[in-house]
Amino acid sequence: MMQVFHNKSKVIITCNKRLSPYLQEEVTALGYTIERSFATGVELNITLTECIKLNLNLRCASQILYAIKSFKAVTPDDLYNEIAAIEWEELIDFSGYFSVTSNVDNPNITTPLFANLKVKDAIVDRMKAKKGIRPNSGSDANKTVVHLYWKDADADVFMDTSGETLAKHGYRKIPGKAPMLEALAAGVILATKWDKKSAFINPMCGSGTLAIEAALLATNRAPGLYRMNYGFMHILGYDEEVFFAERRILKNQVIKSVDFKIVASDLSEDAVEVTRRNAKTAGVDTLIEFQVCDFELTPVPEDGKGVVIFNPEYGERLGVHSKLELTYKRMGDFMKTKCKGYAGYIFTGNPDLAKKIGLKAAKKIEFYNGKLDCRLLEYELYEGSRRAPLTDA
User: Which residues form the THUMP domain (predicted)?
Assistant: First the structure.
C-alpha cells in the first residue's frame, strides 16, 4: 500500500513570480530544510503529513505538490501507460471526485488539456479495472487534485495537497476594485522594514488587503484559520486529527491585541467599508483604524516608528494622466513632510509615474502584480536632524 502520508518524497511549493524569496523565509522559519529554490517556488523532501502544516501556515505559497512518481514519457501513449501503472485505488476514493491540472512543455502535445485528458483516462481506467466503478472527474479543485509536470521527456505526477490556491487567504469576501492578491500583499509586507511592532500606515487602502495582511502578521493569525477544505483531505489515508491538532496550535499562537496603530484610509467611503467588512471576516477589524479621507489627512503617529505604504493606481503604461502625475507628486510630498522617521513605500507598475514622486528610492524591489512588472519603492524619510531625502533631477 502507498503510505504517502508517512513516506518522504519530493515536494514542490509553488508561488507567483518574485515571491520565492519570501516563501523561502516562511518555509525556513517553520523549521523545514529547502533542497532547492527557483523563481516560482522551492523544493523540499518531506512527508505528505508535513504538507498539512505548510498548507495551514504559508502566506506566499500557491500550491503544495507531493510527488508520487517520476518517469520518462515521449508520447501521449507513454504518459498513459506510466499513469495507469500507479496504484490510484490506494490514493483516490473510487466513489469520490478528482481533477487534473498540468504544466506541460512537450513537442507532442499541442494543448495541456489533451495531456490532462490522458491522465484522467489512465486513472479512470485503472480504477474501473480494480474496483469495477469509476470516480467522477471534472475541473473543480475542491476535492482530490492530481498535477502533471511534463517537460520534454521528463514527467512528474503529484498529489496537489492544497487544491484551491493558497494565494487567496479566505477572508476577502468582497474583493473591491482591482484588489492585490493576498499572497502578493504578504510578500510585499515581508519585503519592507516593518518589525510588526510599530505603526503600519496604509493610505489609499482600496479593499484593505495590505492593512489586513499586516494585522494578520502582527497577531500571528495564519491563513489556515480561515479555511476548512484542502486537497490533502481527499487523499486516502488522511487523518483529520492531524489537521485539527495543527489548527489548535494556530489558534493558541494568536496575539489578541497590539499596542501600535494600523491605519487604513481611503477617499472612497465604499472602499473603507469593504476594508472594514473584510477585516471583520478576518477577525482583525478592532485592530485597524479606518478613516475616510484624502490620503494627505491620514493620521500618522509622530513618533516616527513604522512604515507608510501606498498601492496607488498605476494608470496607463503610455500616456500618463496628468491627474495621476499630481497624485504621485502629492504622495512624495506627504511622506516627506508628514512621515519623517518612517520607512516609506510605494508599490507601482508605472515607472513614468514613479518619477513624479520627487524622492530618490533607496531600494527598488521587484514584484509582479498578475503579469504586470512592478516595483516596491523604498524611501528613507529622515528626521530633520539627518540628511534630507534626495530628489530626482
Answer: 76-136
